[in-house]
Design brief:
This protein is about 50% helix and about 15% strand. With about 160 residues, the chain is α+β, with helices and mostly antiparallel strands. It has one domain: YfbM-like super family (Hypothetical protein yfbM fold, 3-Layer(aba) Sandwich). Strands 2-1-5-4-3 form a 5-stranded antiparallel sheet. It is globular and about 45 Å long. About 35% of the residues are buried.
C-alpha cells in the first residue's frame, strides 16, 4: 500500500467527485508522468504517521499522512481509503508541520524500532536522509496547498 497526497482546487474536486474513475486514472498514471500537486510518499506513510503524529495521538498531524478526520470521497471500492481534508484543515496541518524542527525525522527515527510499520522501515539508519528529504517535500506540499486555499486528498492505495 502506498500513500499519495494530492492538492485539490475546488474545480479539481468537482471533477473527481463527479467521476471517481478520474482519480483512479490519476493514481495509475502517477509513475508514468508528473502530475502537478501530486506527491507519492510510497510506503513511508505509516513510518511518518509513527514519527510525526505518534499514530494519531497528535490528531492534527495524524491527518497529514492518513487523513483520519478527512471526509471519505468514495464509500466503497478500490478508492475507499481516499479522504479529503478541507482547506481550513490543510492550513492547520501546514502550520503544524512547519513548526516541527527540520531534524524531527532523525530525532525520532529510533521510535520506529519494533513498530512493524508498513514497508519495514526503521531497520536501517541509512533511511533517515531519504525520509528527511521526503518529509520536507510533504511539508512544502502542505504549505503550497494552504497558500492556495486548496483541499488535500490523502489516499492509501
Amino acid at each position: 500500500m502506498n500513500g499519495i497526497l494530492i492538492t485539490c482546487s475546488s474545480k479539481r474536486l468537482a471533477v473527481l467527485e463527479e467521476d471517481p474513475e478520474t482519480l483512479a486514472d490519476v493514481i495509475e498514471e502517477r509513475d508514468d508522468q508528473q502530475i502537478p500537486g501530486l506527491l507519492d510518499i510510497g510506503v513511508t506513510w505509516d513510518a511518518f504517521d509513527v514519527l510525526i503524529s505518534d499514530r494519531g495521538k497528535d490528531a492534527l498531524l495524524g491527518d497529514a499522512f492518513i487523513g483520519r478526520t478527512g471526509r471519505k470521497l468514495y464509500a466503497s471500492g478500490a478508492l475507499e481509503n481516499v479522504r479529503l481534508l478541507p482547506p481550513e484543515r490543510v492550513a492547520e496541518v501546514a502550520a503544524k508541520l512547519a513548526s516541527l524542527p527540520k531534524t524531527v525525522v532523525k530525532e525520532r527515527y529510533a521510535q520506529l524500532a519494533g513498530k512493524k510499520v508498513h514497508g519495514k522501515l526503521g531497520t536501517d539508519p541509512e533511511e533517515i536522509e531519504g525520509l528527511e528529504l521526503l518529509f520536507g517535500r510533504v511539508s512544502a506540499l502542505y504549505q503550497e496547498a494552504a497558500k492556495q486555499k486548496y483541499s488535500m486528498i490523502v489516499a492509501i492505495v
